[in-house]
Design a protein that fits this description.
With 219 residues, the protein is of the alpha/beta class. The chain has a single domain, classed as Ribonuclease H-like superfamily/Ribonuclease H (Nucleotidyltransferase, domain 5, 2-Layer Sandwich), CATH 3.30.420.10. Helices cover 38% and strands 21% of the residues. Strands 3-2-1-4-5 form a five-stranded mixed β-sheet, sandwiched between helices. A hairpin with a 4-residue loop joins strand 2 and strand 3. Helix 2 packs across helix 3 and helix 5 packs across helix 6. It is globular, with a radius of gyration of 20 Å.
């Protein structure tokens, strides 16, 4: 099944905003942070796996036992090569607000302004902060944050999706039985990627967008 979107004026405005933001030179005082969530189902083994041996891959039975799901908040600063991943039981507005507070007040406490790239999930808006923190506290907190939203049906413009894909392939794509193991593996992956300062080299520009997509633009 396809999701067939329309590249409207609003779509182009949001796309141009993000592509312009990504084209700016790196500025540690105004970090660009891409944020997204991923759900991970916990799957327990029903039979003991066979460990890998010389010339033989590890084997696990096709049957498994579902053990619930966990949410992962993934924030990546592409040009600095830094990411933060938080495992939570849910992804409510309170969980989202707490993760953004962690980023703003601990990880990027020294930044003058934080550019936060988000999709259009209903928890990703100012109202969540006002509901959780109260109007006055939310207004003060959000003064340092500038939100940049992807167009609807265009989450590919959020580089957090690239980082989540790498997380899936390198770390949690297989079966993970419980939250403790999930947290441990994610933390080790995060620390290695940060130590190696793995960056995302975004190449797609506004000119590329116009060349490839202009025939689909509608007013």
């Amino acid at each position: 099944m396809w999701c067939i979107g329309r590249i409207t004026a609003e779509y182009r405005e949001r796309m141009y905003d993000l592509l312009g933001l990504y084209a700016e030179p790196y500025d540690a005082d105004q970090p660009v942070i891409c944020l997204d969530e991923k759900s991970k189902q916990l799957l327990q083994q029903t039979r003991s796996p066979i460990a890998a041996a010389a010339g033989q891959v590890a084997k696990e039975d096709y049957e498994y036992k579902r053990a619930g799901t966990r949410n992962l908040f993934v924030a990546v600063e592409p040009k600095a090569g830094h990411r933060e991943v938080e495992v939570t039981c849910r992804r409510t507005k309170s969980d989202f607000v707490a993760f953004v507070q962690f980023l703003a007040l601990e990880v990027y406490a020294q930044a003058r302004k934080i550019h936060l790239v988000l999709d259009n999930l209903n928890t990703h808006f100012r109202g969540s902060f006002e509901a959780v923190m109260g109007l006055e506290a939310a207004t003060a907190f959000l003064a340092r944050l500038e939100f940049h939203y992807t167009p609807k049906h265009a989450s590919w413009l959020n580089m957090a999706e690239i980082e989540i894909g790498i997380l899936d392939r390198q770390c949690i794509g297989g079966r993970v039985a419980d939250e403790t193991r999930l947290r441990s593996e994610v933390l080790a992956w995060e620390q290695r990627r940060n130590r190696e300062r793995c960056r995302i080299d975004w190449k797609f520009t506004r000119q590329d967008a116009d060349r490839k997509l202009a025939r689909h633009y509608v007013t």
